[in-house]
Amino acid sequence: MYSLKPILTDQNIDLPTCMYKMKPVNSNIIENSCVSKNNSEKSEVELLEDRQNRILDKLNELKQTLLSMRGDLNLCSKPAQQNIQQQQQQQQQQQKAAKVKIQKKPIDVNNLAEIVVNVHPKNIPYSILAFRNLFKDRLFLDVEVFTHSSISDADFNDLTKDFTDKITKKLDYVAKLPTLKVTIIWKDVETTQFISSPSKFIPVYGEINIIRYLNRVGPSEHNYEFDNFQANNHDQVLDVCYQLSKKHSDKERQQYIQQLSKRLGKDQFYNSASSLSISDIAVSSILKKLYANNFKGMPANLSNWLNTISPIAGY
Fold first, then answer.
1. Are 298 and 260 a contacting pair, CB within 8 Å?
2. Are 311 and 129 in contact (CB under 8 A)?
3. Which of 245, 260, 272, 253 is closest to 306 using CA atoms?
4. How close are the terminal C-alpha atoms of the chain, in Å?
């Protein structure tokens, strides 16, 4: 290779005397390196042992301080039962909210726009029948049932026919009640479609959303959103029902069914309610479709509960 001359050469620079002189910037680094070099003569194990001893001494001092503070405050040495306390508080709030009586308000007829539900005959919307019975003294659900050309006679069974007869049964005492027009169309759709504004044709998917809608436009005393604590409990149950409706294998469904069983416990209605609630309607509707009339494999508390509320819901 070609040899090159040095880029930097020794140059004599005359420094001005009008400024203070400073030590070289790297002088501290050099000093510290010298100190660390001297410390390195001590073994690393000894250094680590010294550091550990200092930490243990500080921890011991801190422990003695905390013990003396606990003695001065006369605190119990038993660990706090936080989980039990939280459960008790939740139960108290739940019972308090369940006892609250919601004031009955007149139904706003402006919210009672005609709704259309497209659903497959094998995916019976039992919740609409339950709401028809739940609202019978306050709001009349005038239900008509039609069949789309995409459905054949083979798609119907005894459960579908029984549901149709019950949901379209004429009632005599509803003349003076506000009326909500509901049209059910048996149609070859994978997911239940709910249309609250037929002119706009904007579908909302899933029976759980139908339940939420009917609960909001229906009588105020059945609305679960009056209390944040209750609303959270009901929404959690509805979310579990939605997830359960999306699963197609028994193995996938079991974890959600067990959640519903655990949430119900030994209560007569979900969320310690005193009567049929939106959670009971959602759970009973989906379980009726999954198990039909054969409750084999269903947790015992759920099967007993479903047998009890079915007459109330009109199933």
1. no
2. no
3. 260
4. 98
Write the DSSP symbol of residue 145: E
Q: How far apart are CA 42 and CA 93, in angstroms?
A: 64
- DSSP H/E element including 162: helix 158-167
Strand partners, 203: 195
C-alpha span between 216 and 244 (Å, rounded): 23
Could you tell me the pTM of the whole model?
0.65
Query: Distance between CA 162 and CA 58 in Å, rounded?
Result: 77
Task: Provide the token pair at 106.
Answer: 């007149």
- Over 90: is that where the pLDDT of 69 sits? no
Strands 193-195 and 203-205: antiparallel
Residue 134's identity, in one-letter code, is: L
- The DSSP bridge pattern shows strands 115-119 and 140-147 to be unpaired
DSSP 104: P
Q: Given a cut of 60, is residue 33 above it in pLDDT?
A: no
Confidence (pLDDT) at 273: 87
The dihedral sign for the CA sequence 287, 290, 292, 297: negative
d(CA 271, CA 234): 7
State the DSSP code for 180.
Answer: E
Rounded CA gap, 75 and 63, in Å? 15
Would you say 182 and 117 are in contact if contact means Cβ atoms under 8 Å apart? yes
- CB crowding 133-163: b at 16 or more within 10 Å, else e: bbbeebbbbbbebebeeebeeeeeeebbeeb
Name residue 51's amino acid: R
With CA atoms as reference, report the closest residue to 94 among 230, 225, 223, 227. 230
Number of Cβ within a 10 Å radius of residue 243: 15
- Span 51-67, pLDDT tens digits: 888 899 999 889 888 88
* Alpha carbon distance 100, 192 (integer Å): 34
